[in-house]
Amino acid sequence: MSLKPDTSLVDRLHPSPNIEPRRIAGRPSILILHYTGLFDIEKAIDWLSRPESKVSCHYVITSDGEIVQMVAESERAWHAGLSSWHGETDINSASVGIEIDNPGHEFGLPFYPPRQMQAVARLSRDIIARNAIRPEAVLAHSDIAPQRKIDPGERFDWAWLAGEGVGHWLAPEAVTADAPSVEMDEAGIRALQRQLVAYGYETRTDGILDGPARNVIAAFQRHFRTARVDAIADAGTLVTLERLLAALPPRPAA
Q1: pTM of the full predicted structure?
Q2: CB 150 within 8 A of CB 216
């Protein structure tokens, strides 16, 4: 299987057979960050390269910052699964996927070490520059699949990454950790849901809070309001989201 690095940042190649042509014309427009969810990174890389796994990604970043490429960026890797963003449901065709070495929530969600985060920033900046990916299109797996996924999790340092020029982020509305959250009324919940859709999330806008609706709120908090990830539709979550929407970079003229 022939694989050439797409960037000089790649430390080694480990091709995966789990690829196919992209089904969307043009360059990828989304960057998705995942965690591996396994303790052993070599086992994770091996699994991502086995045909029976039916999963793959473009890059893996180890805990010590090594960058491993598994799929060419021109190809469709199988990392997103059932997912959606701004109405696009073929996220695998629209994105580049990076798996980050971390055992995940099942094992306590360790903090991501500095060398690893620095490698994430370097590789992400490179991918973004070559593909003209917008800041708000740098997403967590949990953003695009909030009913199924919670990675890379609330301990992933999105604020630091944005400071390194990757992603869209701003300081969230402050919360007091020991104070209870207060749910908004139906009109406020509906406003929050509409703003979530405007940002890109897939959710209903009926003002009803059931399990799926709360999963989307939790996904937003896990990325943008990590001090309290409680899936509660509180005013602070809405204010944070409104500020993010207001701060979106302007889109270039058509």
Answers
A1: 0.96
A2: no
**Set 20, 52, 73, 99: catalytic member:** 99
- Range(s) for CATH 3.40.80.10 in the chain? 12-163
Give the position of tokens 């000089």.
8
Determine whether 66 is an active site residue. Answer: no
pLDDT, tens digit only, all 254 positions of the chain: 689 999 999 999 999 999 999 999 999 999 999 999 999 999 999 999 999 999 999 999 999 999 999 999 999 999 999 999 999 999 999 999 999 999 999 999 999 999 999 999 999 999 999 999 999 999 999 999 999 999 999 999 999 999 999 999 999 998 876 777 889 999 999 999 999 999 999 999 999 999 999 999 999 999 999 999 999 999 999 999 999 999 998 877 65
- The architecture (CATH level 2) of 186-246 comes to Orthogonal Bundle (1.10)
Helix (H) / strand (E) containing 160: helix 158-163
Q: Could you tell me the two tokens for 77?
A: 């890797």
